[in-house]
């Protein structure tokens, strides 16, 4: 059975829902959550359906299940706050954007951290970059028990932190650092989600803070530029030069925290973001 790694930090009447990535865990959002809470926000780090357990438990879920768990968590949190912000890392960023598209009346702003529509970063081997073919594999029942095993640098530029995370990842405790690999069929679900979100980006009117590592090893900065160019609401872009994919825990996490807190607070007080998407 999946372990619960969710966290809640009580603050004021402004809430932030944090969403982790595919095969990940709320732990990857915890430092951002603590930082936002110190700035006064009420923060919930949710756990996606099927995550923090076994590979079979993950494979038993679809992207619709993952999104349903996001909407349920958002509905619970919005009942306790006056303003609701949602922020996600990697696939979590896509789920945050989908919530903003489908429930615009709920979402005051979005934190888009390392958005991953495609695995096209510099560390992804050519076989991984062909993973967009996986929906076809799943459709024909090919490779249900196959996974892409995570490879160094595991989205982390800081070498000491990388060693700690990789040790936890391969320890068997998926609630601590997630699964060590991405099952093919779960990746197929991610690509189905990405296709759905891509089609609805133009309906996102909430202000978006798009934070992405320039040298993202997993998802190129083109993923962030896709969001910037297609959403309809105001946009601020934060490009990070000393991090890899896991920007919520890597060397510039404090910059992510500070910019996010400032971005959300300005929206609450009625100030608009300074840069608008083309």
Automatic annotation (TrEMBL):
Pfam families: Hydrolase_4. GO terms for molecular function: carboxylic ester hydrolase activity. Residues 15-251 form the Serine aminopeptidase S33 domain. It comes from the Bacteria. InterPro entries: AB_hydrolase_fold, Esterase_lipase, Hydrolase_4, MAG_DAG_Lipase. The active site is at residues 90, 216, 245. PANTHER family: PHOSPHOLIPASE-RELATED. This is Carboxylesterase. It comes from Luteibacter rhizovicinus.
């Amino acid at each position: 059975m999946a372990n619960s790694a969710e966290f809640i930090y009580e603050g004021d009447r402004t809430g932030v829902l944090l969403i982790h990535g595919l095969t990940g865990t709320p732990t990857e959002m915890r430092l951002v959550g603590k930082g936002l809470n110190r700035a006064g926000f009420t923060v919930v780090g949710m756990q996606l359906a099927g995550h923090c357990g076994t590979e079979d438990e993950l494979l038993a879920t679809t992207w619709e299940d993952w999104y349903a768990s996001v909407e349920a968590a958002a509905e619970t949190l919005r009942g306790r706050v006056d303003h609701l912000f949602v922020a996600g890392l990697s696939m979590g960023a896509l789920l945050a954007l989908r919530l903003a598209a489908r429930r615009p009346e709920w979402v005051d702003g979005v934190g888009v951290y390392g958005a991953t529509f495609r695995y096209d970063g510099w560390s992804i081997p050519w076989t991984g970059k062909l993973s967009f073919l996986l929906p076809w594999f799943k459709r024909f029942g090919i490779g249900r028990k196959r996974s892409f095993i995570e490879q160094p640098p595991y989205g982390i530029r800081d070498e000491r932190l990388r060693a700690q995370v990789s040790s936890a990842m391969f320890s068997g405790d998926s609630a601590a650092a997630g699964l060590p690999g991405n099952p093919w069929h779960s990746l197929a679900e991610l690509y189905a989600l990405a296709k759905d979100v891509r089609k609805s980006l133009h309906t996102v009117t909430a202000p978006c803070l798009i934070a992405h590592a320039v040298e993202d090893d997993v998802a190129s900065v083109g993923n962030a530029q896709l969001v910037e160019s297609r959403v309809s609401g105001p946009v601020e872009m934060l490009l990070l030069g000393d991090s890899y994919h896991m920007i919520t825990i890597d060397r510039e996490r404090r910059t992510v925290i500070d910019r996010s807190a400032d971005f959300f607070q300005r929206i609450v007080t009625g100030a608009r973001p300074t840069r608008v998407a083309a």
